[in-house]
Design brief:
- The complex is a heterodimer.
- By secondary structure, chain A is an alpha+beta fold.
- Chain A has a single domain, classed as TusA-like domain (Translation Initiation Factor IF3), CATH 3.30.110.40.
- Chain A is built from two helices and four strands; from the N terminus they run βαβαββ.
- In chain A, strands 1-2-4-3 form a four-stranded mixed beta sheet, covered by helices on one side.
- Chain A is globular and about 30 Å long.
- By secondary structure, chain B is α/β, with parallel strands linked by helices.
- Chain B folds into two domains: 184 residues, FAD/NAD(P)-binding domain; 137 residues, 3-Layer(bba) Sandwich (FAD/NAD(P)-binding domain), CATH 3.50.50.60.
- Chain B contains eleven helices and 21 strands.
- In chain B, the strands form seven sheets. Chain B has a five-stranded parallel beta sheet. In chain B, strands 13-12-11-17 form a four-stranded parallel beta sheet, covered by helices on one side.
- The longest helix of chain B is centred in the C-terminal third of the chain and has 19 residues.
- In chain B, 47% of the residues are buried.
- The chains are: A alpha+beta, B alpha/beta.
- At the A-B interface, helix 1 and helix 2 of A face loops of B.
């Protein structure tokens, strides 16, 4: 498996408002095409919310996996 | 030898820290062992939740503003001058006219809504997140005779429940004006539900359906055509409007960006528990200025101020800074012109809204006045 080059890791563990996905949206909007953002979230809802948003907005989900008691989700900005 | 604490920023966070610290260490402040300096770029202290009421012609700026010098403890040295540069290596803050060395620094420089963050937005949209914006919007709201009122929301932004409050108040407002049947209210949100907090989103959707408010999720504003009056979503869809009300992405203060202390948006990397700037043992960051994944709200600043003040007192007394911020926030939510609810949460406990009531609405209105006691460090 090729190693993913992470542009920035966003630690949104413990975030309810604005919440992990909103933290990711912020980063994607400010980022450059090709950037990869890794989101750390302790909210199980992120495993569903984030891929759904990524799919709807046309970006790319690199991975979405559990790491102990939180989720690691990486997203590539494609446009 | 006098030790000096500098607080940069005279908003909720900075003013509360200055006053609470001065009250808690009155002996040291009066005998000259401790000097508290607050640097602010304006003499006016504004209670920002008032902007929402101004947009609906429910108040004027004067009633939500006070002179900062009268809010501050008499022994706080208030310097009305914009901080130009913060040098954390030399432990120095430089303003337009002076230079101050510090023993401890508290950065409370806040955030501002950036209407330039999306092409065409400044020319085509309105916002109620600034006093000037709320004044202009009041005029538009009063003269709006019908059409599509579109609300767009970007991240990050202050007070994440204010956009919901706005749309519910707009619904009440145009019903009372007798033209609700001519006004199409359309609320949008960047992710797959109408608010980042799931319980709030569930409650809000029921209200939207009951009141005939349209909503669209996965809406991320990319540009605005002010001539054609069209808002464009990140997915390429076009959304015509007659009145566009935007909650734009916020940025950290200019001085943070100019001093190279923040991230790409000007927010400062901060330890989520100690509230110290990452890598800086003598610098605390508080309120909107942090990069923490918590609400940018007055209540957040209020609870953070408790922690920062207690840790500063410990450190001034030679003790370790052991107090920890637990992510607490408390937000009233106006659900119309006559009812309100509230939510409270922290890093571990998610929020649960309670049923709206008239009493909570009156409590919110009362807090609009009680706020001045909080700013003085009394409540």
């Amino acid at each position: 498996m090729s190693e993913v080059n992470i542009t920035k890791t966003i630690d949104a563990r413990g975030s309810y408002c604005p919440g992990p996905l909103m933290e990711l949206v912020k980063a994607i909007k400010r980022g450059q095409i090709g950037d990869v953002y890794e989101l750390l979230s302790s909210d199980n809802g992120s495993a569903k919310d984030v891929p759904e948003w990524v799919n709807k907005m046309g970006h790319e989900l690199v991975y979405c996996r559990e790491d102990g008691d939180f989720w690691r989700i990486a997203v590539k900005k494609t446009k | 030898m006098t030790r000096r604490i500098i607080i940069v920023g005279g908003g909720v966070a900075g003013t509360m820290v200055a006053n609470r610290l001065a009250k808690s260490m009155e002996n040291e402040v009066y005998n000259g062992e401790l000097e508290i300096v607050l640097i602010g770029d304006t003499g006016k202290h504004i209670y920002q939740p008032g902007f929402l009421f101004m947009a609906f012609n429910e108040g004027f700026l004067e009633q939500f503003a006070r002179e900062e010098k009268y809010l501050l403890h008499p022994k706080v040295n208030f310097v009305m001058d914009a901080a130009r540069h913060i040098d954390v290596d030399r432990k120095r803050v430089i303003t337009g006219k002076q230079s101050f060395d510090y023993d401890f620094l508290v950065i409370a420089t806040g955030s501002y809504p950036d209407m330039e963050s999306v092409p065409g937005l400044a020319a085509g949209g309105h916002t109620f997140y600034t006093p000037e914006g709320a004044e202009r919007l009041r005029y538009e709201m009063l003269n709006f005779q019908g059409g599509t009122l579109l609300v767009t929301i970007d991240v990050p932004h202050k007070c994440p429940v204010a956009p919901l409050e706005f749309i519910f108040m707009a619904d009440d407002y145009y019903r009372e004006a007798g033209i609700r049947n001519k006004v199409q209210l359309k609320y949008t949100y960047p992710i797959g539900r109408v608010h980042s907090l799931e319980p709030v989103a569930k409650w809000a959707v029921k209200e939207f359906e009951k009141r005939g408010i349209e909503y669209e999720t996965f809406f991320n504003l990319e540009k605005v055509d002010p001539e054609k009056r069209i808002a464009y979503n990140m997915d390429g869809s076009e959304h015509p409007y007659d009145l566009l009300i935007a909650i734009p992405a916020h940025r950290g203060a200019r001085v943070i960006q100019d001093s190279g202390l923040g991230d790409e948006d000007g927010f400062i990397p901060t330890d989520r528990y100690s509230l110290k700037m990452e890598g800086q043992d003598c610098v605390y960051v508080i309120g909107d200025a942090t990069d923490l994944p918590v609400s940018k709200a007055g209540s957040t600043a209020h609870y953070e101020a408790d922690v920062v003040v207690r840790n500063l007192i410990s450190e001034l007394k030679g003790l370790p800074a052991t107090h920890r911020y637990n992510g607490k926030a408390f937000c009233f939510i106006e659900t119309g012109l006559n009812e309100a609810t509230y939510i409270t949460f922290n890093y571990k406990q998610p929020p649960q809204p309670v049923p709206p009531s008239e009493m909570l609405h009156w409590f919110k209105l009362s807090y609009n006045e009680m706020y001045w006691l909080s700013a003085r460090g009394i409540l």
